Amino acid sequence: MAELILKHDWSDSLGPIEEWPAALRSALSICLNSSFPTAIYWGPEMRLLYNDSWAPIPAERHPWALGKPAAEVWSDIWDVVGPQFRQVMTTGEGVTTYDQLLIMDRNGVPTEGYWNYSLSSIRDEHGNIVGIFNQGNETTAAVLARRQTQAEIARLGRLFAQAPAAIAILEGPSHTFKLVNPAYEDLVQRSNLLGRSVEEALPEVKDQGFIHLLDTVYASNEPYQGKAVPVEFMRADGERQGRYVDFVFQPITDTAGQPSGIFIQASDVTEATTAMAALRESEQRFEAIVNSIDQMIWSTRPDGYHDYFNQRWYEYTGVSKGFTDGSEWENVFHP
């Protein structure tokens, strides 16, 4: 850029370079020797000078933009930056903005872009404001990446909210609720969990050993899986309600591999567990009844397979349990 500036015809704008004021020469020296994108807007018309790092910013307007008034160079975004430039030139008060949306024309197409930049006043030896010192860089990629990340987080949040299983994410060694879905709130019969520790929000689970279990998972970085585990939750009326749950406590680690939280997934299996318990009890009662009868009892499927014999059968035949299942019972009578 130094060569372009030297070769540029300044006769109709800033005048011969050798007559430029000391303040402009000093600011331009800083600008050209900076590795950061830097520009200078000089004089009442805010004529533009810039360094090599700043040259890609105006895109196809480079090198045409060199020496042009700011309002002409940035006509497409002057409604945004114009007031900022005038503020600096009239008051000397600087402007700093982050991720500023600027819709610039790129090859004739309005294009969304985001920018970090600062505008600072340049003063001459008498303290008068004579120009603007500008540094900045484009942040479009970072902004769009954050937007995509936020959209993905929102999507995952919707998936968590809609998941039939109870899901919660705990943070830190105190096991603070960072995320819970409605199914989890239904399971524990509690809301307003976020930002509270498990011990604070669900004090009834401490004596049941779950806080100790969470501590162990967090410290060891090893997951824990429970099947049909009995747990009692406090209802709104103060009464405890027993449930059976299948659950997983899965440790979460940070980028350094250190523990940072615990992912919880749980399912209420109370109905299935109680049904299985009732079935076992029914089977036990059946066994007690048929084994209390003095006669031999067996059952046969439609295909002729013998699938049950009571205790009297085994006492009478002397064979081991299961030996006469199927068609093998015939061997007892027809060796």
UniProtKB/TrEMBL annotation:
Pfam families to which the protein is assigned, alphabetical: PAS_4
PROSITE patterns found in the cross-reference section: PAC (PS50113), PAS (PS50112)
Domain PAS residues, every copy: 282-335
Coiled coil spans: none
InterPro entries documented for this protein: PAS, PAS-assoc_C, PAS-like_dom_sf, PAS_4
Domain of life according to the entry: Bacteria
Residue ranges constituting the PAC domain according to the UniProt record: 227-281
SUPFAM superfamilies per UniProt: PYP-like sensor domain (PAS domain) (SSF55785)
Protein name: PAS domain S-box protein
Originating species: Agrobacterium albertimagni
Lineage: Bacteria, Pseudomonadati, Pseudomonadota, Alphaproteobacteria, Hyphomicrobiales
